[in-house]
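Researcher: Here's a chain I'd like modeled. Treat it as a single chain, no partners, no ligands.
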Amino acid sequence: MMTKKGRKLNTVYHFVPNGSQIYASSIFQQSDFKADSLSGSLKVNIKTKGESIFAHYQDTVSNQRSALDKTTLASLNKYFPNEKKVLFPLFYSDKNIQKQLILGSSIKGLLRSNVANLTCFPMQRVQERSFAFRPNISQPSIAHREYTLYKTFAARVKNLSISDNNESNATLTLEVFSNLNTLKDIEYLTEDEYDENYTNGVYRYQGCTDYYGYLAQLHDHTHENKTKQYEFARLTKNEGYLKSKSITVSKAVIEQYLKTTDHLCDQVNGHLSPKNPILKDSQLQFLAYKNNSGDEKNKPVDMNEIARSIQLSRSLLEWQSEMENDDLLIFVEAKVDCQQQPIEIVSFGNNYRYYWMYRDTVTKTNGKLRKELLNNDDIETTKKSTVVKLFGHIDEDNNYKTAGKVNINHALEVIEGKSVAERNQWSSIPYLGSPKSSAFEHYLSQPSDTKRLMSYGEQTGDELSLLAGRKKYFHSKTKYGNSEKQYRDPNSSIAAYVTPRNTKFNFTLRFRDVSKLELGILVIALNPNILVSEFQALPKKNPHLSSLFSQFSFPFAQKLGYARPHGFGSVEFTIAEVQTTPKLNNLASECVREYITFISERLLSDNQLSDMGKEYLDVLSSWLSLNELVTDQETSYPSKHDKNSNKENPILAFHSHIRSEHNKQRKCNDKLPVETKLTTLINIGYQGDRDD
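Model: Modeled as a single isolated chain. Structure tokens:
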């Protein structure tokens, strides 16, 4: 990934690849660093290259009304809702002069991330999340019938036996209706719409994810619409028309069905986690508890009740008991033959829009920890890494703790003219919502040479997914929340005491017993410009690095603080002074050259690069690209603008379009003709034709 002069970006962030091969090879896990161990300090200056928000704590507008009247936002005070958040920085009082502080922990976190990128250290603190998708959303068109591998069918539960009341021991045989149009040939009925005079083709049907329809009610409450809770399905074609085929569901598919149920009931990492936007406490109060007879009770619904309702809807034991009285209609996705007849069931659920859990999660592939993530059980390898030696490590599970060799104090404002406190510049900033890790089109590494996107694995045999890497934000033009809609939005924030462009700070970084190579990596992590300038001064240059550096047209800087997706937080670090024991001249330059020599000899020495050499060059290229200081161009989240899109939320429209097209393509073979690769849309964003 490379940026060019005059670049046009349609995304606010990108990823630095993990470099898993390099970490596995232990190239950056040196054990002989004591041979030239150094101790000392770096005096570092910070200069903001754009407006920045170094927030430390927050309050609400209701507590800050009078303060707002004295700021640059005074005329807008009437728009702000009471619950809107106000972000505040820290100040240090020096002889009654208020000087702004940037926390040393924030600077240390930035440097740790940069060193981890430069040494291909695995990612840590990655929160586990599992995800599910709806297999039956977006079907291939009739014109693409010859390419179709998977289709949706309605099916009757023909036989279900469960030994020892253990659903893992279930044997499930379905009668799959192979010629039924799942959208046109089925009529869905509520309990009130059901007519007892219906004699044929009527089945029990569970139209909601959970038995009592709590999630549908929450969705309706959020989106101000009304969803019917269907309990019956009637086939509008007569029995003589229907063609069916009996298929027994494999043990593996049943196991994945049970895992999906666990995911849907999971209140920590799954469907019912706090990250689900409809599961807010204020909205849960809207629901009324229901008992088994459907009667409502005057007590609020909690998450445990919703989970119980999901379990009740999906329980195979419940299906078995219902079969004693009525036939049960469900839906399946099946692999088809050349005649489009079902031959193997790959997923199933209790309604047309059923969920199916992806095989992989954020932290695991095929149930095993991803290689891109730090394996806490491999303590010996972790101990030797540059990141752990410089910044320390805590692993409570294995009772391993070590202090780092780098310490950083808070950065203190250097006042030239008016201080940040005296300027008293407040700003409304846009809502910081963005695509989450469920958006595999961004958070997973996407191959550029295929039509199809890599996902978390719809089928168990799919290729293993790979995390895209560490997310970093591009430098860009600052965007403010300067519309009345943003002012009234309680989800967006107000920043108090915004730090203006060209504000200066300084801090001290202290180190002990580090090698020249480690200090060189640390210096580059502070200021990538030193890497390029020292390389250009070398009499003999590595051709791979020469080619890489020649492609950059702008200086480099870092992103620090709050609201980075909207252009805030561009800062430049410069090393003002180096003090060491023993005292050495030109130490920073010497250490950076040590790093250049090291990667040139160990990774980039061959004319024809090895796989590891290519991997490291990709890591370094991505990291430098994301640090390129371009502040006069706007970035935005990918969006879709056309007459068929969601005009209220074009970002959601973009991702919906990507998912819809992906779901069509995954059901077809590789010969499916595609006008534009989805990977191309992801890389450039999709603008479409504006309906102006």
